[in-house]
Amino acid sequence: MTDHHARTTGSYSYGGSPYDIHTSSLSHPSRQTVKFITAATIGVTLVFLSGLILVGTVIGLIIATPLLVIFSPVLVPAAITLSLIAGGFVFSGGCGVAAIAALSWIYNYVSGNRPAGSDNLDYAKGYITDKAREVKERAKDYGNYAQARAQEATQGTGNYGQARAQEGTQGSY
């Protein structure tokens, strides 16, 4: 029995089971009981503090409500103005950050550092170049086709006009 007590001290065990029946004592509270009492104490204290905060908030609103009603013709436009000013500052700051990010991306792209999304840009650039080349070739082909049709129409109109003139002279005989 002395060997077993040498291996355990308090609630720490150095080889034996912490749930050993022989070492449990009824005079010492268990760990679970201490945890429960601690949690309950903290919980009750926090509930009490939240109640005090709620009471303080209600008293503050009771005192401040007449002042808010009296000064509302001034406070409401002031609040609207301040919110618009703050929104403007936030928007301009966001635009500034976006501009800096865009300029940084462009600098990294131009310097060859391959920023995120540059592969998509290169793909789009190649795709647009290919499509522009196709459109140029189609326009050239269509221009040649239109020129040929115009020449045919001109030659046909000339022959058609000459044929009509010959018919007119033949009909006058």
Automatic annotation (TrEMBL):
CC per GO annotation: membrane; monolayer-surrounded lipid storage body
Keyword Lyase: no
Similarity-based family: Belongs to the oleosin family.
Topological relation to the membrane, as annotated: Multi-pass membrane protein
PANTHER family linked: OLEOSIN
Functional description taken from the UniProt entry: May have a structural role to stabilize the lipid body during desiccation of the seed by preventing coalescence of the oil. Probably interacts with both lipid and phospholipid moieties of lipid bodies. May also provide recognition signals for specific lipase anchorage in lipolysis during seedling growth.
Main subcellular location: other
Subcellular location: Lipid droplet; Membrane
Residue ranges that the Swiss-Prot or TrEMBL entry lists as coiled coil: none
GO biological process, one term: lipid storage
Organism listed in the record: Vicia faba
TM stretches of this protein: 36-64, 84-107
Protein's recorded name: Oleosin
Residue ranges, annotated region (Disordered): 150-173
Domain of life: Eukaryota
Record's keyword terms, sorted: Lipid droplet, Membrane, Transmembrane, Transmembrane helix
